[in-house]
């Protein structure tokens, strides 16, 4: 696999993925919609040891899901607020890296899985 690297908007935090991701996915759950401000989150799931971080120390926001009761840990840059990764109580051995933060285009490199609690719907327009 060619190296994947990226970081936050201001450049204070950088990362490299050093092995093939577990999966690429798009999620339409309510948390992902609220967190991104869009209809979905596109991300790569990787084992924790596959990520090399450098730069400033990441800040963590803990969110307890109303849907399933488990905690989600949003890892973000303390300067610009860019979400770098999500970690979960359910899968502590892995993290989810946001696709939007990669230097390289990754959208055509992986087969995607679709996971969601519910699909996004635009509703009716008059």
The ordered H/E elements are EEEHEEEEEEE
CATH class: Mainly Beta
Strand order of the largest sheet: 6-7-8-9-4-3-10
Report mean pLDDT, rounded to a whole number.
Answer: 83
Quick one: how many beta strands?
10
Report the span from N to C terminus. Answer: 48 Å
Structural class per helix/strand content?
mainly beta
Number of helices: 1
Shape field: globular
Radius of gyration: 15 Å
At CATH's second level, what is the architecture? Beta Complex
Oligomer: single chain
Sequence stretches where pLDDT stays below 50 over 5 or more residues: 118-126
Can you give the helix content as a percent range? under 10%
Strand content: 35-45%
Find the CATH topology.
Metal Binding Protein, Guanine Nucleotide Exchange Factor, Chain A
Provide the domain count: 1
Main β-sheet, in a few words?
Answer: 7 strands, mixed
Key phrases:
126 residues; Metal Binding Protein, Guanine Nucleotide Exchange Factor, Chain A; seven-stranded mixed sheet; 10 strands; globular; disordered C terminus
Helices and strands in order:
Elements: E1 4-7, E2 13-17, E3 23-27, H1 30-36, E4 41-47, E5 51-55, E6 59-64, E7 71-76, E8 83-88, E9 94-98, E10 112-115
Parallel strand pairs: 3-10
Antiparallel strand pairs: 1-2, 2-5, 3-4, 4-9, 6-7, 7-8, 8-9
What is this structure, in a nutshell?
By secondary structure, this protein is mainly beta. It is 6% helix and 42% strand. The N and C termini lie far apart (48 Å).
Overview of this structure, please?
There is one protein chain. This protein is mainly β and 126 residues long. It has a single domain (4-115), classed as Beta Complex (Metal Binding Protein, Guanine Nucleotide Exchange Factor, Chain A), CATH 2.170.150.70. Helix content is 6%, strand content 42%. It contains one helix and ten strands, in the order βββαβββββββ. A seven-stranded mixed β-sheet has the order 6-7-8-9-4-3-10. A hairpin with a 6-residue loop joins strand 7 (71-76) and strand 8 (83-88). The protein is globular, with a radius of gyration of 15 Å. The model is unreliable at 118-126 (pLDDT under 50).
